[in-house]
Amino acid sequence: MTIRMTENNSEDAVLPSESAAPNDESSEKEETTFHKKATFVCAALGTFTAWLTFSVIAVFFPNEAKARGMSQTVIGLVFSSFSVAAGISSPIWGKLLPLIGARFAFLAGAFVAGSCNILFGFIIDMPTDATFTAFSFAIRLLEGLGSSACATSTAAILAYTFPENVGMSMSLFETCAGVAFAVGPAAGGLLFEAGGFRVPFFVLGGAVLATVGASCFFMPDHGSEEKQSGPIVQVLKIPAVWVCMLAICANFIGFTALHPILSVHLETLDFSVLGRSLLFCCLGVSYAVGTVVWGYVVDKKKCTRTVISLGTFGAVIGFFLLGPSPVLNITPTRVLVGLVIPFLAFAMAMMTIPPMLDMIISAEWYGIPYNMGLVGIISGLWNMAVSIGMMVGPMLASWLTDCLGFGYATTIIACGFLAVWLVLCFFGAWEYRCGKGRRPPMEEPKDDSHTDFEEMVLLSKAP
Question: Where are its TM segments located (predicted)?
Fold first, then answer.
């Protein structure tokens, strides 16, 4: 039995409350681990199902829309309206997260996205072509608002709950989104063949709502007192934030540019439908693996600028070879395309998660404390840059290919990446010589404004 000596040299047994202290600490540690696991699982499921709702219409909606009188341009605008709404609303959600609670924003956003997906299944019953078009836009815009709230809060929750592993947790989040993009069209097509227009939306929308219901029970609902909104003005005054947003936007312009034009190019090289599908699968898998690898690297080494620069230059090489560029005088071959696609995806993965971690490092270097307000703003700006890239990429690539052909289109995209790479290099030199100087590696971030117990759960309010 543990004992202690009194002033009279007598032995007294330790009080029960003192002897139980180690057990209390062990119990609190177990609770912390459970909360973190529950948070990650709920965030992963929410991300996966919410992004399924974005990609589910890719296979069958264009044909149905054409039958209802939509032109190809209007169909493209319906797809882009989702990203427009998400891009505009993401920084707003990021600023509001400390006020409304990240958990509430996550649940409410996923609920809106799932409900809109179910509602989209009813537009086939619209009496006129005009109402069909109008409700297509209205529902996709509202769905973009909900999905952006879900995505922004998820990124903030993961960055706040795993401050020592921001890169790794965000890379797994991006992997879930990438898998959803790959699975969504296939799942939508199969469900459409099985039950018609309504079934894909009812099934996948129901899956999102089921995830919301499960998250209500398992996602931690502990919180703290109300805090001020995020310091968006202070963050936007940091030059490095704008450079990172440029890199993110360029990355997703390049990645989504491949979707409307690559399949046609592969067909000219006599790839079968199965071969094209496998190459697109290779693109997604290489990107997913790359985000995990580079997320782990930047977590351990904090070499965000180096990774971003190497990824940007790798994208330059990849797009020049993918065409291949007419200036290279290389004959396009199936082997060349098969080698370039995974290389390009792995390079672009270097420009996805590291910029977010770099923005957090820069904000702390400029004196902004690491808390939910900061990670909310950073995640909102990151999601805004992603949405802008996803909106611009397909339209730009389609227009360039129509006007100039695939080879010149990829050459121009490569030149865009080259310009971003030069900006990164010159900015790094300027920051070192004229700006804030060389930044030390980021230590594990701490926020003195909340307790250790609050760190293990979400800064949120129960809905």
Answer: 38-61, 73-92, 104-124, 136-160, 172-192, 198-219, 240-262, 274-297, 304-323, 335-353, 374-400, 406-430
